[in-house]
Design goal:
Protein name: Heat-shock protein
Shape: elongated
Family: Belongs to the small heat shock protein (HSP20) family.
Keywords: Stress response
CATH class of one domain: Mainly Beta
InterPro entries: A-crystallin/Hsp20_dom, ACD_IbpA/B, HSP20-like_chaperone
CATH architecture of one domain: Sandwich
Strand order of the largest sheet: 1-2-7-6
Radius of gyration: 22 Å
Mean pLDDT: 79
Largest sheet: 4 strands, antiparallel
Order of helices and strands: HHEEEEEEEEE
Distance between the termini: 50 Å
Length: 155
């Protein structure tokens, strides 16, 4: 028995502006997504996040990480075994199939570092909001210059 989860986002699309990507994401999320390879997403600090992907059996030159706009894509392609290696598998339980894992990133999030150790691919992400996008307090009247409003949550 398969449950179908469909929701019509049309009324919300009509009354919002600039949220098309959000609705596209909601419509496509959970639609037969594969669970390989497994991953964790953790919040290290307010503007620092870490994605850890289990990529046992893959070498660093067999993994590709691509950050493009608000999408982070991790691809893994195992190099074909060289002929005459003398390896004869009786049972193969380690998954080394090719994979592609996509992560939707928020605005102003960039990849700061990536590392591969002990079968885990660790990708560090940092959110850096440009100064022009931060809230500024505007004085009424006069020629006063705007002052930056400090984030009360960060303090």
């Amino acid at each position: 028995m398969t449950m179908r989860n469909s929701f019509d986002w049309t009324p919300y699309r009509r009354s919002t502006v600039g949220f098309d990507r959000l609705f596209d994401f909601l419509e496509t999320s959970g639609s037969g997504a594969e669970n390989y390879p497994p991953f964790d997403i953790e919040k290290i600090a307010d503007d620092h996040f870490r994605i850890t992907v289990a990529v046992a059996g893959f070498k660093s030159d067999e993994i590709e990480i691509v950050a493009q706009q608000n999408m982070l894509t991790v691809n893994g392609r195992k190099a074909p075994a060289a002929e005459g290696e003398g390896r004869q598998l009786l049972y193969s339980g380690i998954a080394t199939r090719a994979f592609e894992r996509r992560f939707q990133l928020a605005d102003f999030v960039r990849v700061s570092a990536a590392d591969l150790a002990d079968g885990l691919l660790i990708i560090d992400l940092v959110r850096e909001v440009p100064e022009a996008m931060k809230p500024h307090k505007i004085a009424i009247g006069g020629n006063a210059t705007p002052t930056l409003v400090e984030d009360k949550q960060a303090a």
